[in-house]
Amino acid sequence: MAVPLPRPHRFDVYVAAGGLLGGLLLWGIGLGTRPRDEPIVLLPGPWPLLVPLAVTAGCELLRRTAPRTALATGTAALVLDTVTQGNLVTLLMYTDLMYAAVLYGTPASARRIPWITGLLSVAASVVPYAVWRVPEALLIGVAVGILAFAPASTGLIVRYHRDAAETARLRAEQTALLAEMDRTQAVTAERARMARELHDMVANHLSAIAIHSTAALSLDDPATSREALGVIRENSVEGLAEMRRLIGILRDSSGDSAPAAAPTLDGLGSLVDSARANGLDVDLTADHGGSLPAPVELAAYRIVQESLTNALKHAGPGRVAVALGRRDGCLRITVTSPYGDRDGPRAPGSGAGLVGMRERAALLDGSFTAGPETSPRGTVWAVRATLPVTEGEPE
Questions:
Q1: Which CATH fold topology does 267-395 show?
Q2: Contact 242, 201 (CB under 8 A)
Q3: Given this model, what pLDDT does residue 259 score?
């Protein structure tokens, strides 16, 4: 089944029509490229030159869609034109076919055609001069160079420039795409970081508020209600302070006040005291060997904070043990709490805390596990995190 040729480009149609009309105009006024009585003219008269003119004009329709076919057919038409009186427009259209074959043809054609036309131009100069020994013989090579080598070289130069421009455009698009991907990843990472901070900072206080407010509403005891309201007020004030610190981070010190310093492991005592005030029985053992890089201290603090929050919301009655130790270049964190149903009110959980702790450990190339384990105290919920520490380079 024959494959139909694609429709010619509109510009190619204009070129073909203009060339044909121009050639007919020169034919009409009797203007040819050589005299009628010249020995090379084997087909004298005005009519034979119309055939190569029409064929070359038809080839112009294929200059972009089938450049090699157009050049081969145009070359045959040019040979035929040389044995007639000739038409200047036929020669001009042939130079355009040579140019288009290099510009729109395959890469192999673009490399070979200039070399072939260059060799033909040299041969057309050397061979006639060697045979006839007259300087005028060199003009044959000049004519071949003008008709073939010059347009082929021009097409090659234009093609190189177009390829370079296309390469630059693709590189710019790739750079823009990579920049957009980096921007999207940065925004996603920042949103995840702020989500972790927001959850870790307020979840503990809001959980305590929810539990104690539920207790105050469910028990008709003024002393218990007053104690619960005190815990609620304390957690509200601390939660508000944490929210202000988060707003300071978002403003990046460009607002009315600079953000407060990030929490460190030195604040674990206060964190444990707050958990005890909220009703947890917490035992803290911390031996982290002095100063640590700031990201490690922040991650460790937040993991302990979230673990205590989860214990407040879900743990059964009993002691919560928090242990931090620095061994083998790593800070190891273990938080265990009784596993089972608890008596009294409890706050709902969404699982975001475990996700946040796992993300904090992963960002520091550490490890994180959480789940029930069997221990001498019975079944406990154990949170274990290992955070690598760069020795001797605290931040």
A1: Heat Shock Protein 90 (3.30.565)
A2: yes
A3: 46
3-state secondary structure the chain: CCCCCCCCCHHHHHHHHHHHHHHHHHHHCCCCCCCCCCCCCCCCCCCCCHHHHHHHHHHHCCCCCCHHHHHHHHHHHHHHHHCCCCCHHHHHHHHHHHHHHHHHCCHHHHHHHHHHHHHHHHHHHHHHHHHHCCHHHHHHHHHHHHHHHHHHHHHHHHHHHHHHHHHHHHHHHHHHHHHHHHHHHHHHHHHHHHHHHHHHHHHHHHHHHHHHHHHHHHCCCHHHHHHHHHHHHHHHHHHHHHHHHHHHHHHCCCCCCCCCCCCCHHHHHHHHHHHHHCCCEEEEEEECCCCCCHHHHHHHHHHHHHHHHHHHHHCCCCEEEEEEEEECCEEEEEEEEECCCCCCCCCCCCCHHHHHHHHHHHHCCCEEEEEEEEECCEEEEEEEEEEECCCCCCC
**Residue that has been written with the tokens 């270049």 in this structure:** 329
For the chain, give every residue range classified as CATH 3.30.565.10: 267-395
Instruction: Determine contact, residues 302/357, Cβ cutoff 8 Å.
Output: yes
Q: Which two tokens stand for residue 281?
A: 């029985």
Bridge partners (DSSP) of residue 284 are 322
Neighbours of 22 (CB within 10 A): 18
Least confident of 129-138, 167-176, 202-211: 202-211
Report the 10 Å Cβ neighbour count for 94.
Answer: 23
Q: Which among 289, 286, 287, 308 has a CA at the least distance from the CA of 357?
A: 308
pTM for the complete prediction?
0.57
Backbone φ and ψ of 392, nearest 5°:
75, 10
Where do we find the tokens 């029930």? 372
Residue 154 has pLDDT above 80, yes or no: yes
pLDDT for residue 394 is more than 50: no
Sheet holding 378-388, edge to edge: 281-287, 319-327, 330-338, 378-388, 367-375
- Residue 57: is its pLDDT beyond 90? yes
